[in-house]
Structures are given as C-alpha cells and as structure tokens.
C-alpha cells in the first residue's frame, strides 16, 4: 500500500474502545466523553476481517489501542484472530498496564508480540494529580509492568508525556532506569487537542528533554529496539536500555509516516490529526470487500499534520487523544 506521496503504509493502529480506566490530564477529560454506542463498535470478527483484507494489500503490522484496550472484554480473543492471519508479522499493544496482571500471560500465549506501557510518573503521591484516579491504580500499573516482564514481552517500551511542573522533574529518574533495566523509555511531546489546551504552557520540547538527559552523562545515538514508530533513540554507555524521544511538535516526522488508524467505530483515519476518514464499517457489515475503500483512504492521506501549540485548529476535530488511540 502506498499513499499519494509514495509513502509505504504497512502499519495499522486499531482502537478497540474509546473508554479508559484512567483520566490522564492530557488525554481525556475527568468526566469522560460521550462514549461510542455499543452497536456502532466493530466486533472482533469485523476487525479481523478488515485486517485480513488489508493484509492482502500489504499490511504487515498492527497495534491495539484504545482508550485503554484491556477494558474491552476478551481482548485475547482478538489477538488470537489476528495471529491467525499469515501476513501479519507483528502484533503490539499500547496499555496503561493497570489490567496487565490479569491478562499479560494470556495475551502472550495467544500471540501478542510486544507491549508499550504508559508511565507518566514513578511517584505514588503525584499519580492522582496526573491520572486522576486513586493510587491503587498506580500499584496495579507497577504490578502490570512486572507481569509483562514475567510473560516475556520484549522489548519493553515505556511512554511518558512530559509536562512542565507536573512530572518533568522526574526526567533523570526515568532516564536512569535504562542504565539498570532493558527498558526503552520514550519521552513524548504534548500534542494539543480540544480538551488539553489548558496544558499548553506545560509543553516540554524534545530538544530540552535531550539536553537535560545529556547533562547526566554522555548520550550516544542508538538504533533502539525493533518497532514501527517514529522515536529517535539514544543510549548511556553500557546501558541495557535506551532513551527515546517522540517529537510530533518540534520535529514532525510526517515525511516517513507508515500508518493509518482504524477507529473503534470502523472509520479508517489516515492521519491522527487529520479530518480525512473513510468508512469501513458499512462495507464490512454488508459483506462488501474493503479494497476500494482502503485505496480511497490512501489517495486522500494528507502530507502532514497541522498541529499548533495552544490551538485545536490542527487537531482534526479531536476533543481527546483517547478517541483514536494516539
């Protein structure tokens, strides 16, 4: 699959739900959203059908997202269905790890290859301020990371959205984890959407993040772990893990975009922050092949996003990142 700019598209991020068990301040309003009605959600069989048909066109890698994907019941069943599609080479999951203690082993057994875990603080006393949930969720998150390691998930990637005055003082502590553990800590720049514009003054650029990490010790460019994303990686001398930055604002990486997104209600979204979507749910439910719809989506994929710090104008109408899985 190639888009109108010649970029090869072989990666699909699949949102299985717009719901989440946390309310992270940059991702979802504390009162939640107007959830997608259940009849409008794609079933697992419909998701698997879309993936199988797109695999015939060149799709090779998928990632399950949300909201929080593990709040949807029986997610291992979907992993099993996707694993049975011969052309799919890699299945990954983005999660806050709160429910991983229950599901990590089963997910591994059914064919999940990798997990990315969101960890925005290592401090129990500030978890509530960021995630806006009781600290028992923090304890469950830590247990979930341990469960992921026990289940054999590797590489283990940890994603942290840096917010000035909320968690940026933990930069050294988070980066230092890579000296001790084979973890890949990725610092992510805040991405503005309708419900998080109040955080605009808390934006921390990747250049500042790297400067502050380099102040700790020499940091050399690194290939980083296998994966499908746009992170740039670095490594402390002799460290088993790496430090990465994801830079949608300061150094956009749209020229090498390799992905599309399937929303929980069956829209093929060609850019996280674009308005261009193509309906896959209708043809799937009518038994019509989705090949032409996918081609139409590729033809309309924009060249780049138009995000602007402090404004929602370039966010493609998103109220919250949780709506499409980030």
Structural commentary:
The protein is of the alpha/beta class. It has one domain: Aldolase class I (TIM Barrel), CATH 3.20.20. Helix content is 28%, strand content 17%. It has 9 helices and 12 strands. The longest helix is centred in the middle third of the chain and has 16 residues.
Binned strand content: 15-25%
Low-confidence segments: none
- The outline comes out as globular
Classification by helices and strands = alpha/beta
Q: What is the overall number of helices?
A: 9
In spatial order, strands of the major sheet run: 7-8-9-6-5-4-3-2-1-10-11-12
Mean pLDDT: 94
CATH class descriptor: Alpha Beta
Short description:
This protein is of the alpha/beta class and 326 residues long. The protein has helices spanning 44-55, 75-83, 100-110, 124-131, 135-150, 171-180, 206-214, 281-285, 291-300, and strands at 11-15, 61-65, 90-95, 114-118, 156-161, 183-188, 220-222, 232-235, 242-246, 259-262, 267-269, 277-279.
């Amino acid at each position: 699959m190639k888009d109108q700019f010649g970029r090869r598209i072989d990666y699909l991020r699949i949102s299985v739900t717009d719901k989440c068990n946390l309310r992270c301040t940059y991702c979802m309003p504390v009162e939640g959203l107007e959830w997608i009605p259940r009849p409008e959600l794609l079933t697992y069989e419909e998701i698997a059908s879309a993936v199988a048909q797109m695999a015939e066109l060149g799709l090779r890698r998928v990632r399950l997202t949300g909201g929080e994907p593990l709040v949807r019941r029986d997610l291992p069943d979907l992993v099993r269905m996707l694993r049975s599609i011969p052309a799919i080479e890699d299945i990954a999951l983005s999660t806050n790890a709160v429910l991983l203690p229950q599901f990590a082993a089963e997910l591994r057994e059914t064919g999940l290859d990798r997990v990315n875990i969101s960890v925005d603080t290592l401090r129990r006393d500030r978890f509530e301020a960021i995630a806006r949930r009781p600290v028992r969720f923090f304890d469950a998150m830590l247990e979930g990371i341990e469960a992921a390691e026990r289940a054999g998930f590797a590489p283990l990637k940890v994603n942290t959205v840096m917010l000035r005055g909320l968690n940026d003082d933990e930069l050294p502590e988070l980066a230092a984890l890579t000296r001790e553990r084979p973890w890949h800590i990725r610092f992510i720049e805040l991405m503005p959407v309708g419900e998080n514009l109040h955080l605009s003054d808390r934006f921390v650029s990747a250049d500042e993040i790297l400067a502050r990490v380099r102040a700790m010790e020499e940091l050399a460019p690194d290939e980083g772990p296998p994966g499908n994303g746009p992170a740039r990686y670095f490594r402390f001398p002799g460290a088993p893990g790496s430090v990465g930055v994801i830079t949608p604002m300061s150094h956009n990486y749209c020229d090498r975009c390799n992905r599309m997104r399937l929303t929980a209600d069956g829209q093929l979204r060609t850019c996280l922050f674009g308005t261009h979507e193509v309906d896959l749910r209708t043809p799937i439910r009518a038994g019509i092949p989705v090949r032409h719809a996918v081609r139409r989506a590729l033809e309309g994929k924009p060249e780049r996003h138009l995000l602007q710090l402090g404004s929602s104008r370039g966010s493609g109408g998103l109220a919250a990142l949780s709506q499409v899985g980030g």
